Amino acid sequence: MPVLNAVPPRQAVFRWARDLYAQSVDRKDARGFAAAFTPDARLRFGNNDWLTGRDAIEAAIAGFFTTFVDLAHESKGEFLDGDTLFLEAVVTYTRHDRKQVSVPAMTVFRLVGAGDDGRPLADQCRIYVDLTPLYAPSA
To answer: Among residues 28, 70, 100, 107, which is most buried (max CB within 10 A)?
Structure first.
């Protein structure tokens, strides 16, 4: 288990979040995304059941990434209140039929400190998004 230090300063948390999405999520790197969590972290994506553990998070996100060709997050706001980080975005997905759909999303991380490398670690994450347009039948 990583040694946890205090949650990094506000600007470092925001930089971490931007890097996490640019270098991992928007590159469909499930392992890189999962590395942002403690080993026993919990994640709830939409109305799905809670996932528990970094390995379960990585496996589920890797599976999710296979359901579309590409994605890109456009930040609409970053808010930090104590140990809770709120990220508002518009996510544009490229479906397998090459149609692009954009949906609003909100991700909430509970940060529990930083690992040995100084980067924040989360023990909880909730992703709020309606993926109906992503999986809707082609017209």
So the answer is: 107
Entry pTM: 0.92
Long-range contacts of 73-82 (CB under 8 A, 24+ apart): 73/21, 73/25, 73/26, 73/105, 75/18, 75/21, 76/104, 78/14, 78/17, 80/10, 80/13, 80/14
Distance (Å, whole) CA 102 – CA 85? 22
Beta bridge partners of residue 91, listed in sequence order: 73, 103
3-state secondary structure of 2: coil
Q: CA-CA distance, 24 to 92, in Å (whole number)? A: 16
Which CA distances in Å does 100 have to 30, 58, 70, 95?
A: 21, 25, 9, 6
With tokens 């993926």, the residue in question is 131
* Beta carbons within 10 angstroms of residue 62's beta carbon: 15
pLDDT, one tens digit per residue, over 28-54 is 999 999 999 999 999 999 999 999 999
The values of phi and psi at residue 22, to 5°, are -70, -40
